[in-house]
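User: Fold this; tokens only.

Assistant: Input:
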Amino acid sequence: MPDNRSMPGAETSDPPTGREGNRLQSEIPVATVIQKLYDTCKATFSPAGAPVSGRALRRVRRILDRMKPSDVGLDEQLFAQHDRGFGFFGMLNGRRGCHSSLVARWAPPISYLHIHECEKFSMGVFCLPTSAVIPLHNHPGMTVLSKLLYGSMHVKAYDWVDPLTEYDPSQPRLAKLVVDQVMSTASETAVLYPTSGGNMHVFTAVTSCAVLDVLAPPYSTEEGRHCTYYRELPYSSSSVVRCRSHMDEA
């Protein structure tokens, strides 16, 4: 997404004056909400995923909190009427996703609306029909902000019990439950961090819904930030589970 200075038709000359100037001035559009979100994210995040101040993150959250489906070109009524997706997002942000045996069983399909991606952050919208599920997955070294644009969605999220301990990805690992709730459009923007806030989560659509995600920095296999899917395994405590990676099933 280009900034205002590079948008088609943008002028750098001084504005006209007089009656003609007043008429032309009234036709200059106010910056869209999505443009404001882009500009704020661009000024907030860094390619290396450096820690972001709480104040800077609140600026991003305030914009997301007031976003509506129309701000990203979605027609809520159309999606609710058909209540189905438009195909599994096999290409995630232009890159081939991880197709495990679990992912292959997703039904009905989920659609992904790509908005922007750069080395600092990515923005996109997942549209889920009723009962659709995005399985348990992680966001390594990333800060993620999620805003539900319409509908309702159940979110269950975990963090590792010992996030800094090295482990064998082929072996189960203990994770603690930190989020287990239903989100609605009235819910504030959810934020997860590299080692807290529910870095691993699963989304289940209670109704047809759409969620706008900002990932900073975005997934990158080259940088070691690849998406890994997990399976929950039984454990004696209801607030702690064992998770096993699905990477070997890709």
